[in-house]
Write a structure and sequence with these properties.
Distance between the termini: 48 Å
CATH class of the largest domain: Alpha Beta
Helix content: 40-55%
Number of strands: 8
CATH architecture of the largest domain: 2-Layer Sandwich
CATH topology of the largest domain: Beta-Lactamase
Length: 256
């Protein structure tokens, strides 16, 4: 049953990625990796409940009214996203890197918004996606601002980082030590000259605060080919300015 729910969510995400367009059964099967009969069976149930709308056999399927009804209260973390979006757009134009806004909820890390017009770092266009909490710069930036008790809760849920995701961490003590260093440095850089999907990628991130409370992290990500020290310093400067402006806007919003 749990696997069926997971497949249904994946199908809905794939249809949502069509950005209002329709996908045929064959396209849904190809993009999810599920057999056509499996997709057809799940889509039939989703259509009966109104979450998927069948346009025609040849045109395919779109999101139904039931899916839109689920968003009747607005986007997840809508206030934070609305404050960050103009700054993220500026950061993307200045850096030509993907800009990422992340939060951690219930010991899981989520990307809740992105600007990725030039780097194509993300294959899926869905704005909200669960992501690796250890490997990514934004995940580490938020972890570094959490209490030891909350970090331990994350560790109990996820265990140690998988091999290659954070080589300096092999247990809770080394995790806490690494996070202490990040908290002092204030900026996280990950993956430089490393590998992501067999292609080197760079991530750089900084936590963002509402007053003294960490509400998430903003980061820049780019394919690492040709990024030297000078380009890295440029990305660092853009990140610092962007994070400072987001915090200024958060403070202003809360003082209204």
């Amino acid at each position: 049953m749990i696997e069926s729910v997971r497949k249904a969510m994946k199908i809905l995400s794939v249809i949502s990625d069509a950005a209002g367009g329709a996908l045929t059964l064959a396209e849904i099967s190809e993009r999810t990796g599920y057999p056509k009969p499996t997709c057809a069976h799940i889509i039939k149930t989703l259509a009966e409940e109104g979450y998927v709308l069948r346009i025609s056999h040849t045109v395919g399927y779109t999101l139904g009214p039931g899916a839109y009804y689920l968003t009747r209260y607005g986007r997840y973390e809508e206030k934070l996203i609305s404050i960050c979006r103009p700054v993220m757009r500026y950061m993307e134009r200045k850096s030509c890197a993907a800009v990422i806004l992340s939060v951690i909820k219930n010991s899981d890390k989520f990307i809740i918004d992105t600007y990725d017009t030039s780097q194509n770092m993300f294959k899926e266009r869905a704005q909200i996606r669960i992501d690796d909490i250890y490997r990514t710069a934004t995940g580490r930036a938020i972890l570094a601002e959490m209490s030891d008790e909350d970090v331990i809760a994350v560790y109990k849920k996820h265990g140690p980082p998988p091999r290659g995701h954070w080589d300096e961490v092999d247990g809770i003590e080394s995790l806490l030590s690494e996070l202490k260093n990040i908290r002092k440095q204030k900026i996280v850089i990950t993956g430089r000259h490393g590998s992501r999907n067999d292609r080197p990628a760079l991530g750089i991130a900084r936590a963002i605060f509402d007053k003294k409370h960490c509400v998430g992290a903003v980061g820049l990500a780019a394919w690492d080919e040709g990024i030297g020290d000078e380009e890295l310093e440029k990305l660092r400067a853009i990140l610092i300015r962007g994070a400072a402006e987001i915090q200024r806007r958060l403070t202003f919003e809360n003082n209204l």
